[in-house]
Specification:
Number of domains of chain B: 1
Number of domains of chain A: 2
Shape of chain B: globular
Number of helices of chain B: 12
Largest interface: A-B, 30 and 22 residues
CATH superfamily of the largest domain in chain A: P-loop containing nucleotide triphosphate hydrolases
Number of helices of chain A: 10
Largest sheet of chain A: 6 strands, mixed
Strand content of chain B: under 5%
Oligomer: heterodimer
Structural class of chain A: alpha/beta
Low-confidence stretches of chain B: none
Radius of gyration of chain B: 20 Å
CATH architecture of the largest domain in chain A: 3-Layer(aba) Sandwich
Radius of gyration of chain A: 22 Å
Order of helices and strands of chain B: HHHHHHHHHHHH
Number of strands of chain B: 0
Strand content of chain A: 25-35%
Helix content of chain B: over 70%
Distance between the termini of chain A: 38 Å
Order of helices and strands of chain A: EEEHEEHEHHHEHEHEEHEEEHEH
Largest sheet of chain B: none
CATH class of the largest domain in chain A: Alpha Beta
């Protein structure tokens, strides 16, 4: 049975459709990435899943419980860990006091283990916390009652790169133990590294749900080249070059093909500088899902 | 059982104690002045008599020749009814809207507790200032009047405090209601202050006029410390009415909060 089933989920704020007729489901034991640019409607979906907002039409079920039914959803919440986007806390309490309170509400059998991995300064008041410390505190509370399902909104925002990697490792370990994870992100690279499947949302509509290998093939990398003699698109006659643009001896394109072919084609050129990077998500949308990403 | 109440109440301890000390100090100052007034040859009661009725009624000033009349007017009608009423409305306004606005409430509501319960437990945390102040104030006031050798009757003093609890709950409830309706925390708190103050004014200015009935919507009309302290009359109907109103406001607020989008 699917852990999360979303059926025709629609949320309107006045005339604006923040979510439009969403359909997808998340199976037990998978990491599902919910990818989309800022303002695409990711947080709106999450708020409806958690019962904070009522769908305008359609619904979703978590562990078989309809999110519109507060009483049923409340029962399921004991098995859910939640991490909101930009988590906020009462500034005057210490991290420890906050965790003690959360423990009273839902349990904390894994608190100590988590505090070995994520290290917010527990005895300081939260008003003194950096963004990264707040995020770590929120991560600890999300996992400390050993939930079966994690619902997280941009979980790595504010974490330094090392902690991000530690978090991704931790997430994979949890998945291997059967935990289901649903998280939103606007960073393609992050979703690629940790997810099994990815749902892509834009302007409130679900564009596609794919397994991550397909996305890898479609997503590509952004390549920036500085060559000694100008490089032309015609000279770079290989598969997988998209959106080629050049200016003097600088060239830039998205590459979805085979790296060996790329380097073979570049062998005739003297390369001054090369940069191969994650494409910004807007680029991915532009090239692979049509339309302009504003 | 009452995790949220305990968590919230702990955060109110310092503010409550500070307020208790401040109110206590002010009460002692007022009481300390009394012997000078009582022994002065000036006819203060004549002066009071010459004031407009709404002013006299609004501040409960009837007579300053007895300690009861003086304390009722200078301390209870103003500081207690108005200032504490405003404080409770302000505190009530801060219960939910600010937490919703900042997103703090998400982390609480993601746990297996109902919204109604969280909201009600937060409301219960206002019991801390209500209880602490209703214990500290009569002690300070009674001690002060004993010290200046004009002791108040402790029985009626306690009755004033006991019967002011429903009134304070109504003021807190007004704040809670605003906190469930409005989206911004500071807006709910300011609206709570403004509304209770306007109701107090409405009650005061309509007294003795043709539209006196208009002031009947104000909770301040149903609490009269002067009547209890000076005239030693205890009316239980008004506090009962206030209690019912408080219950209706709180239940209505909880019902609305349960179903709104956050």
């Amino acid at each position: 049975m699917a852990v999360i089933e979303v059926e025709g989920l629609t949320k309107a704020y006045g005339d604006t459709l923040a979510n439009e007729d969403l359909d997808f489901s998340i199976e037990a034991g998978e990491i599902f990435g919910y990818l989309g640019p800022n303002g695409a409607g990711k947080s709106t979906t999450i708020r409806q899943l958690m019962g904070f907002q009522t769908p305008t039409a359609g619904t979703a079920r978590i562990f078989g419980n309809d999110v519109r039914n507060d009483r049923a959803l409340r029962g399921a919440k004991a098995r859910i860990g939640f991490l909101p986007g930009e988590p906020a806390f009462t500034p005057s309490v210490t991290g420890r006091e906050f965790l003690d309170y959360q423990a009273e509400l839902k349990g904390d059998e894994r608190r100590d283990e988590l505090l070995g991995l994520f290290t917010p300064p527990l005895d300081r008041r939260i008003r003194e916390y950096s963004t990264g410390n707040k995020q770590m505190l929120a991560i600890v509370q999300a996992f400390m009652h050993d939930p079966d399902l994690l619902v997280m909104d941009e979980p790595t925002s504010g974490l330094d790169p090392l902690k991000q990697e530690a978090f991704h490792d931790f997430l994979r370990g949890e998945r291997d133990h059967g935990t289901t994870v649903f998280f939103s992100s606007h960073i393609l690279g992050e979703v690629r590294r940790v997810c099994d499947r990815v749902g892509i949302i834009r302007d409130g509509r679900l564009i596609t749900v794919e397994i991550v290998e397909e996305l890898l093939a479609r997503g590509g990398k952004q390549v920036r080249l500085h060559t000694e003699t100008p490089l032309t698109e015609a000279a770079l006659d290989i598969d997988g070059v998209v959106g080629f643009a050049s200016e003097g001896r600088e060239a830039q394109f998205t590459f979805t093909g085979d790296y060996d072919a790329l380097f073979a084609a570049l062998a005739d050129y003297r390369i001054v500088d090369i940069e191969i990077d994650e494409p910004p998500i807007e680029e991915v949308f532009m090239h692979f899902y049509g339309g302009d990403a504003e | 059982m009452i995790e949220t109440t305990r968590y919230e109440a702990r955060q109110r301890v310092r503010g409550t104690l500070a307020f208790a000390v401040l109110l206590g100090a002010f009460a002692l100052l007022i009481i300390y002045l009394y012997p000078t007034i009582a022994e002065s040859s000036a006819d203060i009661d004549a002066l009071i008599e010459s004031l407009p009725e709404s002013f006299r009624e609004g501040f409960g000033a009837e007579t300053y020749t007895t300690i009861e009349g003086f304390v009722a007017a200078e301390l209870y009608q103003t500081v207690w009814v108005l200032l504490l009423g405003l404080y409770m409305a302000y505190a009530g306004g801060g219960l939910l809207a600010g937490d919703v606005e900042s997103g703090r409430l998400y982390l609480v509501l993601a746990t297996p507790v109902s919204r109604k319960r969280v909201a009600f437990e937060k409301f219960l945390s206002l019991g801390l200032p209500i209880v602490v102040l209703n214990v500290s104030m009569p002690l300070v006031v009674f001690g002060g009047t004993v010290a200046i050798d004009y002791p108040l009757d402790p029985y009626y003093l306690l009755v004033v405090h006991l019967l002011s609890i429903p009134y304070l709950l109504v003021c807190s409830g007004i704040g809670l209601a605003l906190s469930t309706i409005l989206d911004r925390g500071d807006a709910a708190q300011r609206a709570g202050l403004a509304l209770v103050f306007l109701l107090f004014l409405l009650d005061s200015v309509t007294i003795g006029t043709d539209v006196e009935w208009l002031g009947a919507v104000s909770p301040t009309r149903y609490l009269d410390p002067t009547e209890i302290l000076l005239h030693e009359t205890i009316d239980l109907v008004d506090p009962l009415l206030l209690s019912i109103v408080a219950i209706v406001i709180v239940l209505g607020s909880l019902g609305h909060f349960q179903h709104r989008d956050l």
